[in-house]
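Hi F.,

I've been meaning to write this up properly since the lab meeting, where we talked about keeping a consistent format for the predictions we share between groups. The idea is simple: the sequence comes first, exactly as it goes in, then the structure tokens exactly as they come out, then a line or two of notes. No screenshots and no reformatting. I'm using this chain as the first example so we have something concrete to point to.
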Amino acid sequence: MKPTFIQKMIWSFMLLFLAGCQTYTPKPIDLESFDRQWSTISPDSLLPSQASDPNNSEQKITLAMAEEIMLFGNPQLRRSRSQAGLAEVSAEYAGLWDDPELRLGLLKNQNLTEDNWFYGVSLGFTIPLSGRLAIEKDQANKKVDIAYLQVIEMEWQTKRQFRQAWFKWLQVDALYRLEQSYLNDLETIIHRSKQLAQAGELSSTDVDIISIEYTKRQLESSRLAAKEKQLQLELFKLMGLKPNPNISLVNDWPTAQTIDLPSLENIKQAFTQSHPTLLIAKENYALAELDLHREIKKQYPDISLGPAFEHEEGQSKIGLGLGLPLGILNANKQGIAQSHAKRDTTRIELESTYQTVVTNYLEAKVRWEFALQQYELTKNTFIPLVEKHRRQVQTLLEMGEIDYLRLKDALVTDLQAHMELINAHMENISASHHLQDLIIMINASNHSIEKEDKND
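Output, unedited:
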């Protein structure tokens, strides 16, 4: 028995359907393999142009090198780039026509003895005359733009976070070394005061006071040593490197930035054009506009059109099916109203983002001005006075006027003053770099984004 026309058509569409389907292939997670791969990642593999001496197993990383490594290896940046790639894949298949619909109908007439089966076949295509699919494609492309702007924003934020963590590590390292120097001075005083106590020239109570101060500074030194190790681990984590004893961080202090402040109006204009956070807010508003446009297009019907075949009482019929929704009762009123509200909300978010960006710049400017003032006052006024007082006490000791408690107090004051200097110096460096980054960031939209992870 030869297949009929309708049977041929059904089998043809079934084969087309199966040919268009994809198959599932599992991809198991292998963390052990990833851990081995992670162990092979090194500064030399990420920055081959700055590879270290092959005869020297120790690798030293400066701040500039660390920032480059962080841009490639930071886990958050890798996730952000991956999510941007997800938006790109989604946009590739956005705005496609709906799949055609194949309908089959089969009836049997119980009153007939011959040719008592009735069947019909129709194939429906939805023709998007409203234009909503083109808008959906534009929406998907807009989401890709937003995703890569978010990568730029994440790169800047992560770089700032990393630099602040590096500065904090330098600060704690300097405080630790200052504490060690102070402990060495106290050891000398304790040794000499014990000799004087044995000779009856100094009371044991005075020796105990100096010993208490020494123990207190030992505890503080131990705390700073632990804090320094924690900050080093934090830096390795931000770089995406596994902690390695052969990799050391160079603790050279950067210089404070010399800043040429543009006018506020120029800053506002530049931020409006290039600030990643503000650009994201502007793109979100444009996306809300497209969403409203699409919802309005949904009022207009998409036509359903396709061929139809029927067989009834021995007769075959071929025709054309047409479907046309009538937007009378619904007319997508809910979707349009929601999109109107969403656009208004997004506009307010854009305006508030603009306020936040400008205010953050003004706050950074005030922070830098205050930090510079505090550093110069501490360095040029406070430290000379403290050092002068310490020299006077040491001169009295050399003249035979023995007062080790007074010397201990002078050393404590000197220690606290130099701690203030370290903190003020680092705050000045941190504030100047942050403000300079805000000014430089106006060119962030020209930043070339690595769409694929260098490690892959």
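Notes:
Confidence is low (pLDDT under 50) at residues 443-456.
Strands lie at 59-61, 101-108, 117-127, 247-249, 303-312, 315-323.

If this format works for you, I'll send the rest the same way.

G.
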